[in-house]
Amino acid sequence: MSYKLYYFDARGLNEPLRMIFALGGVEYEDVRIPLGDIPPPPTIPAEIKEKCTWGQVPMLEFDGRKICQSLAMQRYFAKKFNLVGSDDWEAAQIDEYVDSSKDFLQVWVPPLTEKDPAKREELIKETKAKTVDKYLKTFDKIISANGGKRLVGKNLSWADLWLAHVLNNLELVGGVKLAEGFPALKALCDTVFATPEIKAWVEKRPKSKF
Asked: Is the pTM of this model over 0.90?
């Protein structure tokens, strides 16, 4: 089966799908739309935009079908590759932590896209202070209660991929090392990025700003 993924030249909201594809050994065409100098938001070429159900990317085409929301496509393939827990309760917990990881990432968009260096540093400091209790301490506590390396259950889940991606992306984009001082968070990240398929993907993936 042929897969064609349309997204920006970025890790962003859809890097977890690429990580899932790496785990599943899925070959696909990775169509990357140039970001430009954001802000303002990047422009999606008309010939791609008109094919997208909601006029936005990501969009994944395969087998005469298309999916046009990041979490929908990620959940679809997470189910295929057994990354959704061992039962419905674990799947629900995983969904909760994925949604929370996405919220966590989006909180950081304003500081990381700020062009003025002084203002950027101030926004990074403010955002870090706001997210320590709500996200970092909470996630660290959840991981610790589950054995110290994963968010849910005994096996790797797409929630683990999401959280590891967010923390890694914030470090790559803004030099913000949020896992420091949170042993369980660091252990989760180390576990995810030591997974052979993920490690191989990260080593070869295209360099991108975001």
From this structure: yes
Amino acid at 127: T
* Burial tier of 209 (Cβ tally within 10 Å: 0-12, 13-18, 19+): middle
Domain span at residue 182 reads 88-195
C-alpha–C-alpha distance, residues 6 and 34, integer Å: 11
Judge whether 53 lies within some domain.
yes
pLDDT in tens, the chain (210 residues): 799 999 998 898 999 999 999 999 999 999 999 887 766 678 888 999 999 999 899 999 999 999 999 999 999 999 999 999 999 999 999 999 999 999 999 999 899 888 899 999 999 999 999 898 899 999 999 999 999 999 999 999 999 999 999 999 999 888 888 888 899 999 999 999 999 999 999 999 988 888
145, 190: one domain: yes
Phi first, then psi: give them for residue 8, nearest 5 degrees: -70, 165
Strands (E), 63-104: 65-67
